[in-house]
Amino acid sequence: MFRTIKNLYRLIGIMRTLARYDAVFPLEKLDLPDWAVRGLSFLAGRASKKYADHRPGERLAMALQEQGPSFIKFGQSLSTRSDLIGEEVAQDLAGLRDRLPPFSIEDARKTIESEFEQPLEALYATFDTEPVAAASIAQVHFATTTTGEEVAVKILRPGIEEAFQRDLDLYYWVAEVIETLQPGFRRLRPVEVVRTFQESVDLEMDLRLEAAAASELSDGFEHDPDFGVPLIDWNLTQRRVMTIERIHGISIADHEALEAAGLDKDKLASNLLVAFLKQVFRDGFFHADLHPGNLFASEEGRILAVDFGIMGRLNRQTRQFVAELLLAFVTGNWKRAAEIHFEAGYVPRNKSVDVFAQACRSIGEPLMGRAANEISIGRLLAQLFQITETFSMQTQPQLLLLQKTLVVVEGVCRDLSPETNFFEAARPFLTEWVRENLGPEARIKDAVVETAAAARRIPQILDRAEQATEFLNAAGFAMQNGDHADKLSPQQHRHTNGFSARRRGMPSMIVIVMLIAVIAILLLRG
Q: 208 partner at 20 to 30 Å CA-CA among 97, 183, 235, 478?
C-alpha cells in the first residue's frame, strides 16, 4: 500500500509536467478503461497549448528532459519501441540528447580517490578541471597518465545509483498497473521493457562493464584500417571510474572540417556501414549508440567510436533470422519472409503463414521499384514490427535495438553520402553469412561438432561400465543368484539396478555416435 501511495504521488507530479508540454497523448495509446484515463487526466490538469506547433514526440522529449536523468535514459530506451509508441514518436525520442550540467571537480576528485584509495596526483600527471562532456550518468575529463599517455577519464555522477533506483521502482509499478488494467498490452511486455532498461542502466552504472564492452569490440577491429576503438587503461579503471585512450579526430557531423582535412565522405560512410555490418553478422556484438556525437574520423580516414554504455548482442539464431529476412525482402520472396518468423518461433503456430506473407508483401512491394539508396532497412524493420500485433508476435528486444541502431547508422551514412546503398554494402555479408552458416559446409561442420561432443562422452561411458563391472564382480554376481541376493546392501542394490538400466542403453548410444561420425567423415571426403 505504501508503495502504491508513494508512486501515485510521484505520478501526479509527472502527469502535471506532461500536461505542461501537452504530452499526455501516450495515455490514448494505452487504451486504458475510461475511468483510468479520466482519473489520470484529472491529475494532470489542463494541457498547455504553448508547444502546439511541436510534434507530439518533440513535446514528450521536452517533458522527459525536464524530469531528469533516468527519464532521459528511459526516453532513449523507448525510442527502440516503435511498436509501442509509434514510429514518429520513436524518431523524436531517438533525438533526445543526454546533456546535464556538470558536477564539480571536487566531487570528481572525491570519487576517483575513493575508488583507487590514492591521491589524484598519484594517478594522473595532469587532469583537466573542466569536463569535455557531462551526461545523466557520468561526465568525462581529459587527463595524462603518469607514464605520459593522453586519456579520457569517465566518472559516475555522485548519488546517481540511488536516484535511478527510485525511478525504476516507479517504472515497474506503472508497467504492472498497465498489464493489470489492459491485458492486451501483455503481448508488448511493458514489465519486460522496464527490465531491459534496468539491465542497460546496470551496465552503465558499472564502468568496468563498459570497459569490457569496449575491449571486446576492439578485439574484432584490432587490425582493421577503417574502424577503430580506443584502448582501455585497466590499471586506472574501477566501478565508478573508467580511463580510456584519448582519440584525436574530427566529429563525423562536422562536414566542413572533414572536407578541409581532405577526407572522402563517401568512403567514411562506406567504412561506417561495413564496420557495423561486421559487428552484426560476424561478431554478433554491436555498438548500439552510433549517433554522430559518438563518431570521429582520424586524419587517415579511420572511423573512431566512443561511449560503449549501450551494446547489443545477437545469438546465431537471431543473426540467421535477420540475414534470411533481409535476403527474402531483397528477392521479393514474401512466403519465405513469413516462414522465417514461424521457424524462429516468433509467431504462434496457429497463425496463417500465407496471411503473414501477405502482410510482408504489403511492406516490401512498395519498395521494389525504388532505388536502393532510397530504401531504409531500419524503417522496413520498423514497419514489420508494427504489424506484429495482428499475429500475436511477442516483442523481441534484441531486434528492436538492432532496428533502432540501423536507423541511426543509415541516417549518419546518408548524411555523409546521400547515395549510400545499404543493399550493395550488405549483400556480400549476407551472402557469405548464409553460405557459412546455412549451406552444406555449415551443416557438415555442425554435424562434426555434435559428433565430437558425443564422442568425448564415450570414454566416460566406458569408464562407468568398467567400474560397474568391477562392482558386480566384487559382489559375486549376487543378483544372478537368488540365494545370495539378500546379502547385498541397499546401496549395492541401487548401484546394480542403475547399472543394469544404463547397460541396456549403452550399446545403442555407442552405435548412434559411431554412425554419425562415419556419415560426417564420408560427407567431408565426398
A: 97
